[in-house]
Model the fold of this input.
Amino acid sequence: MNKPLILISNDDGYQAKGLRCLVDMVRHLGDVIVCAPDGPRSGYSCAFSATTPLLLTLREESEGVQIWSSNGTPVDCVKLALHELVPRRPDLVLGGINHGDNASVNTHYSGTMGVVMEGCMKYIPSVAYSLCDNRDSADFEPLIPYVKRFTQQVLDQGLPSGVCLNINFPLTQKGEGYQGVRVCRMAHGTWSNEVTRCHHPRGYDYFWMVGHYQNDEPQAQDTDNWALKHGYVAITPTRMDVTAHDALAQLRQDWEQ
Done:
């Protein structure tokens, strides 16, 4: 009987500590194939390369684990892996572990979420893991029992069709544990001052996309932002169908002739 097959990608690159730690956390659960970008691809969301030739490079191979890289986006990596690398349909697609949170509206920009959305659109159970720590040296050790448990649970029980999981871990102080686990909705939030203008010594202006995130409903206790702020692991079920079902009836009344 075949072991479960787990496909992993990310948007921080195949060398990122978060991805390497994720492989170590789940390799005992099945065979692992990694296909990840050859460098950082944060913010690529569900973008794919329609006009750029793509390359695949085998970086490492050990018992039960293959690590490949591509010059493409996170979604490219999933598509390439499903078409060229996997010996059979994966039982699970994992994204991460991302250096930095993907809560609230960050979901829409995240390449880590692009990975699991692509898996979900292929009807493969898919889970994204992120830690609220952007540092290259982020400590992923506190996540180990949670990632192992969540991953095993999805392998055993699956997920509803068209639904993937966006799981974010708060940053805690050394030696402190998490308050628990909250299944919650995505917070309503906005980014402001997103563009910073700089002047180059050679006389031209250039721009950085940075900005400040604001939680627009800080008192709401059922959101991912609230859970993370209060030390909880936030699990947000995310649906592929973006139809505004609650608006259908009114729009049909107003628009259909």
The helical segments are 17-26, 74-85, 106-109, 111-121, 144-157, 224-229, 248-255. The chain has a mean pLDDT of 94.
